[in-house]
Amino acid sequence: MTTDTINKTEILKSLSESISEMQQLISPLGTNEINTIPYDDSWTAAQLLSHVSKSINGMAKAMSAEGKPAERDAGERIPELKKTFLDFSKKMKSPDFIVPEKGPFEKGAMTEELNNSSEMFKESAEHATLTEAVEGLPLGPITKLEILHFVVYHTQRHMHQLKKICEAIKK
Q1: Is residue 68 helix, strand or coil?
Q2: I want to staple 53 with a disulfide (CB 3.0 to 4.6 A). Which of 10, 86, 117, 128 is the partner?
Q3: What is the DSSP code (8-state) at residue 97?
């Protein structure tokens, strides 16, 4: 087993755990609750799931896209991505193409969409050459190894937000 395979397996396991945790968080919520804006300047829980699904779908396509051999260390940007997306004190703006619709959303459809996105990403990652670089993404030139990490960090960031949303809704 190569190092890439071990890392890929561990990273995909971490993504699966994050997706499962998101689903557990919204499990006790009803349709009205997941469509409730919990506080000013926030998405609903359903909008957040839609955003994460759209992002993962986009990254699955990037993982399947033809890339070029990276002309640098394939993991060079991993620390930067981690620092950026796991710094919960900073507010970030989503690219327009993954901003969720206003809703309302149906809970079952949202969880199914999240599962399908995750499975599509895992499938594309399994066949990806992690040392290839792709261009044309909002993240700039990025390797497929870095995309794996981005998806995990981005999902973890939104997990943190989902926890806050769920706490606010339960009050």
Answers
A1: strand
A2: 117
A3: G
> Which of 163, 165, 137, 167 lies closest to 151 in space, CA to CA?
137
143 CB neighbour count, 10 Å cutoff: 26
pLDDT in tens, 30-85: 999 999 999 998 999 999 999 999 999 999 999 999 999 999 999 999 999 999 99
- Where does residue 102 rank: exposed (0-12), middle (13-18), buried (19+ CB within 10 A)? exposed
Helix (H, G, I), strand (E, B) or coil at 54: helix
Q: Which pairing describes strands 142-143 and 68-69: parallel, antiparallel, or unpaired?
A: unpaired
Report whether 86 contacts 149 (CB < 8 A): no
Largest Cα span, the chain:
51
Radius of gyration of the chain (CA): 16
pLDDT of residue 6: 52
Q: Are 42 and 158 in contact, with CB atoms under 8 Å apart?
A: no
pLDDT value of residue 3? 43
Evaluate whether 70 touches 143 at the Cβ level (below 8 Å): yes
